[in-house]
Each structure stands twice: as structure tokens, then as C-alpha cells.
């Protein structure tokens, strides 16, 4: 087992959402102002019972000691095993495979719809906290997500409801020092290899020796989308840089590093005990 200096551990932008899972947001500016006003009333002896309860709630929130969530600890354990024992957990599924394989096609579709040529970013940047490689950084951060099929494409969802992607974009904006970002969903044809894999999966699940032709045709049709206008196969969500969120992330990363250091110390102490 090799000793690692986890006090400087960098975290991938794509995983920042797991780091921040369960972190309660700090007081808003309005809440801070309310708390200040109530403290002044308390000092002057003019605070009501209801206001005292409100003040107590705000003070509890302000002074609450943050704790790492189960989700965060699980992710940190994965990092520990990967770094210390060189055992990387491979995360592979058909959705990720498609995203990787059609990346260029998705960027081409987005360029066609917007009338602007976008090129795949090849740079990986890092600072003292995080590391990442965005898909595009021409004027603003762009991260491209390729939907598996029409049912998983957010055609009708007006609001972005994905904390993982939100934090990922925040990290990229920090690294590239940009104030705006786009989460871009694209619906492009699935590669033939993955269509064949899907046919084999359906055949195995259905107990077929030979998949009926009508079912083969149905699977193929469900994974090709050129009959849908390009403008309807791109959905963009705008995200702005949030400096307060990054300050919260910096504090959380400090706690994560402490967790990794403590875990390593416990493992090393066990080794010393066994050796004795």
C-alpha cells in the first residue's frame, strides 16, 4: 500500500454533485439581513416571541456543523480505493457508451441548429481544488449530453433539474473563468453497434432464437431520429456562474480531504498493529 497526500486531492468536475450531496445552502442575503435585524431587536429588548423563534432558526442554520452525506462518503471511498490500491471502478452502460460514440455528431447537430461552428475542446484544466475537461468553451461553457432515445430526451422540460450537471458546469466555469454555461441535450442516431446490442438484449430477454423482423424494425426505428426536425432534437438550459456556490464547494472539499486523510491514517494504523 502506498501513502498518498490527500491534503491536495483534486476532484473531477463531473463528480462535484456527489461531493455536494446533502450540503445545506448557506443563509441567503435576505436571511442574513433578517437575522441582523432580529439580533438588534433582541439587544434592544424589543423582540417578540415569534421573532425569537425565527432568530433561533436562522442562528441554528448559520452555526450548523456540516457533515458529509452517505453519498459523498461513498464517492470518497471510491477515490481512496482508486488512488491507494489502483483499483478504478469502471462505470459503463449503454447510455454512456452512446454519449462517447456520438459526441462529434451531437456537436455537429448543435452547430447546425445554431448556425455556429462549435469545436470539441481538447484541454483539461485544473486549479487547487478541481480538474475537468468541458466539451466546448467558445465564449461560454457548453456541455453536450446525448439522449439515449426520444423518451429520455427532455423535449418538454422547461427547467433544468439535475444537480450533478449544474455542479459540473459550475466547476467548468470556474476553471475557464467564464460567467455563462449551457447544458445542451442532443438527440442523434444511435450507432449501429449499439442498435445490434439492443436487439440481442431484447432477444435474450424475450427468449427468442431469432428476433422477429417486425421487432427488429421497431427497435431500429426507435433509435434513429432523422425524421424529427433538427431544431426539435436540441434542448438548451442556461446556467450562470455562482460564486457563493463555489465558496461552499471549497469548504466542502476541505472536509472531503480531511475524510480521506483520516481514512488513510486508520488503514496505516491497522497495518502497524498487524505488524507488531
Descriptive report:
With 276 residues, the chain is mostly helical. Among the domains are: 24-64, no CATH class; 94-245, Lambda Exonuclease, Chain A. The chain has ten helices and six strands; from the N terminus they run E-H-H-H-H-H-H-E-E-E-H-E-H-H-E-H. A three-stranded mixed sheet has the order 1-3-2, with helices on one face. It has a three-stranded mixed sheet with strand order 4-5-6, with helices on both faces. Helix 7 links the parallel strand 4 and strand 5. It starts with 10 loop residues before the first strand and ends with a helix. The model has no long low-confidence stretch (mean pLDDT 91).
Question: Can you summarize this structure?
Answer:
The chain has 276 residues and is mostly helical.
Amino acid at each position: 500500500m502506498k501513502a498518498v497526500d490527500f491534503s491536495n486531492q483534486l476532484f473531477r468536475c463531473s463528480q462535484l454533485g456527489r461531493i455536494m450531496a446533502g450540503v445545506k445552502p448557506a443563509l441567503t442575503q435576505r436571511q442574513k439581513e433578517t437575522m441582523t435585524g432580529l439580533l438588534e431587536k433582541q439587544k434592544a429588548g424589543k423582540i417578540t416571541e415569534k421573532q425569537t423563534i425565527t432568530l433561533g432558526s436562522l442562528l441554528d442554520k448559520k452555526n450548523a456543523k456540516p457533515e458529509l452525506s452517505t453519498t459523498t462518503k461513498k464517492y470518497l471511498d471510491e477515490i481512496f480505493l482508486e488512488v491507494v490500491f489502483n483499483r478504478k471502478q469502471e462505470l459503463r452502460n449503454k447510455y454512456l457508451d452512446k454519449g462517447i460514440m456520438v459526441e462529434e455528431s451531437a456537436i455537429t447537430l448543435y452547430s447546425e441548429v445554431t448556425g455556429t461552428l462549435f469545436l470539441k475542446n481538447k484541454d483539461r484544466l485544473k486549479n487547487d481544488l478541481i480538474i475537468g475537461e468541458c466539451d466546448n468553451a467558445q465564449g461560454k461553457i457548453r456541455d453536450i449530453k446525448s439522449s439515449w432515445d426520444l423518451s429520455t430526451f427532455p423535449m418538454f422540460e422547461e427547467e433544468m433539474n439535475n444537480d450533478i450537471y449544474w455542479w459540473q458546469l459550475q466547476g467548468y466555469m470556474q476553471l475557464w473563468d467564464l460567467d455563462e454555461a449551457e447544458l445542451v441535450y442532443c438527440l442523434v442516431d444511435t450507432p449501429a453497434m449499439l442498435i445490434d446490442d439492443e436487439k440481442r438484449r431484447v432477444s435474450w430477454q424475450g427468449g427468442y432464437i431469432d428476433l422477429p423482423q417486425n421487432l427488429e424494425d421497431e427497435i431500429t426505428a426507435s433509435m434513429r431520429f432523422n425524421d424529427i426536425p433538427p431544431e426539435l432534437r436540441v434542448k438548451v438550459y442556461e446556467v450562470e456562474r455562482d460564486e457563493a456556490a463555489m465558496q461552499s464547494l471549497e469548504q466542502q472539499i476541505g472536509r472531503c480531504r480531511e475524510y480521506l486523510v483520516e481514512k488513510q491514517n486508520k488503514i496505516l494504523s491497522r497495518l502497524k498493529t498487524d505488524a507488531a
